Amino acid sequence: VQITNLENNSILRADTSYLFNEMNHSISYGNTLLSMPLNEDTLYLTADTLLQQKKTEGNLLEAYPKANFKSINMVGFCDSLSYSEKEENLFLNKTPVIWLDEFQLTSDSIRILLQKDLIKMAFLNNNSFITSEVDSNSFNQISGENMIAYFDENKLSNIKVLGNGESIYYVEDEKKSEAVGVNKIICSNMNIIIKRRQIENINFYKEPDAILYPINKTNLNDLLLKGFTWRNKSHIENIIQGKMDKYHLF
């Protein structure tokens, strides 16, 4: 089954789709794949069930369970997802994870605010965590109660940590391009500046409690913040790619 929405040029593919209310309501199952144009990008979404409703107050999309999605700049997974077209709000519920460039973002729930098909902000609500891989055994980490991520042309530009902020990040010798120390910092609120896909600077709103550990005198197992987890991004990418291959989308 293939259904094209002429209003927004999205295309829904599935093994089975049921249409109701003069095609204003659909439920789709089996090998679902929804492609949604986003500016100069396309968001691909798959889940066990996709539900679309056309309403006077704005179209609504729901995906559940096992919602996986991918675009050029973003890969993600959550148990259930909903998207309000009028408000341009994307809600990710129950253990969501998003990868943006080098960064993995997790929290109890995530709300992504779009503006004219561009990602503007992401709100990480409760038990927020951001991590990036230094090598297979080492990770830069930032945790906090809540976070707000800001974007410029769909690229992550800075992240505000609001409450219970902690960070661990590795200090490199620029000449040798290798880690020489590890900063462990506790500060309730902080702002992380991102440039060229990496943390460029961290601004602290109050006097931080900071310790610099020499890399050769540090047990790496002690440098994992509470709540740390490293997920398999390639698994999500393979799920989407498998659906794209099935429908001969390259």
Give the key terms.
single chain, 250 residues, mainly beta, 23-stranded antiparallel sheet, 1 helix, 23 strands
Characterise the protein shown here.
The chain is mainly beta and 250 residues long. Helix content is 6%, strand content 60%. It has 1 helix and 23 strands. The chain has one helix at 233-246; strands spanning 2-4, 11-13, 16-20, 25-29, 33-38, 41-46, 49-53, 60-64, 67-70, 74-78, 80-84, 89-93, 97-100, 103-106, 109-115, 118-135, 138-152, 155-162, 166-173, 178-186, 189-195, 198-204, 209-214. The chain has a 23-stranded antiparallel beta sheet that branches. It is elongated and about 65 Å long. The two termini are 19 Å apart. The mean pLDDT is 90.
Quick structural gist:
This protein is 6% helix and 60% strand. It is mostly beta strands.
Proportion of residues in β-strands = over 45%
Helix content: under 10%
By secondary-structure content and strand pairing, the structural class works out as mainly beta
Main β sheet profile: 23 strands, antiparallel
Helix/strand layout:
Layout: E1 2-4, E2 11-13, E3 16-20, E4 25-29, E5 33-38, E6 41-46, E7 49-53, E8 60-64, E9 67-70, E10 74-78, E11 80-84, E12 89-93, E13 97-100, E14 103-106, E15 109-115, E16 118-135, E17 138-152, E18 155-162, E19 166-173, E20 178-186, E21 189-195, E22 198-204, E23 209-214, H1 233-246
Antiparallel strand pairs: 1-2, 2-5, 3-4, 4-7, 5-6, 6-9, 7-8, 8-11, 9-10, 10-13, 11-12, 12-15, 13-14, 14-16, 15-16, 16-17, 17-18, 17-19, 18-21, 19-20, 20-23, 21-22
